[in-house]
Specification:
Largest sheet: 3 strands, antiparallel
Distance between the termini: 81 Å
Structural class: mainly alpha
Number of helices: 10
Radius of gyration: 28 Å
Strand order of the largest sheet: 1-2-3
Length: 216
């Protein structure tokens, strides 16, 4: 069996270790995988295959961690990311499992985070939120649980308040149509749109909104 004769850390990538067998370069491993090797150790063909598989797993796992660092992801998003990288399905399954066990990949937590972020930045209705989460591959039962925290009347009002500044000076039919269309695109239903439009029109007429002129 070939014997490990040298382990050399790469100059351009400190996390990669070049493995030499019988005096010849053989392959490279992530340092966390190479840590199990020592000079003089003999490696069977099966040992080498196992090391290379562990290396692929670790490299792709680290890449997924970086992918997750930008924002929370759903399980489907991570699986699609790995598929786009042509990662073998067995390795992809193991990566997903490890992330789930570590609490780093959780569709329920992802759905809650998505709903909270949307409500904070761009309020929208349950219908649109549900559609977005389905597109991310989140199961319906998890979506319904996450949407329980959504107060559509409050969200519609907040979305509308941010819009009415650009609608000052319009007559009521135009105001109702413009604001209604806007709230409809945000996924709110007819009754909530009707009540929100009426409320904001009245408050705007009574000067309760403190809006700046659209020409200012």
């Amino acid at each position: 069996m070939p014997k490990v004769t040298a382990l050399k850390r790469q100059k351009k990538n400190a996390h990669r270790v070049n493995v030499y067998l019988d005096g010849e370069y053989a392959f490279a491993l992530q340092d966390i995988v190479a840590i199990s090797l020592k000079v003089g150790q003999e490696l069977s063909p099966n040992d080498i295959l196992t090391l290379k598989t562990q290396d692929v797993f670790q490299r792709e796992y680290d890449r997924v961690l970086h992918y997750l660092s930008y924002r929370p992801r759903s399980v489907r998003e991570v699986r699609q990311y790995l598929a786009d990288r042509d990662v073998e399905s067995g390795i992809a399954d193991n990566i997903v499992t490890r992330l789930q066990r570590a609490g780093l990949l959780d569709d329920a937590a992802f759905a809650r985070s998505w709903v909270e972020s949307r409500d904070s930045l761009r309020p929208r209705g349950r219908y649109l939120l549900a559609r977005e989460l389905r597109q991310k591959g989140v199961p319906d039962e998890i979506i319904q649980e996450a949407l329980q925290s959504v107060e559509e009347e409050r969200s519609a009002y907040r979305a509308g308040v941010n819009r009415v500044g650009a609608l000052q000076g319009m007559d009521y039919p135009t105001f109702r149509r413009r604001l209604g269309d806007f709230l409809h695109r945000r996924g709110f239903g007819y009754e909530i749109i009707r009540e929100t439009v009426q409320r904001l029109w009245q408050e705007m007429q009574e000067g309760k909104l403190g809006l700046q002129s659209k020409h200012s």
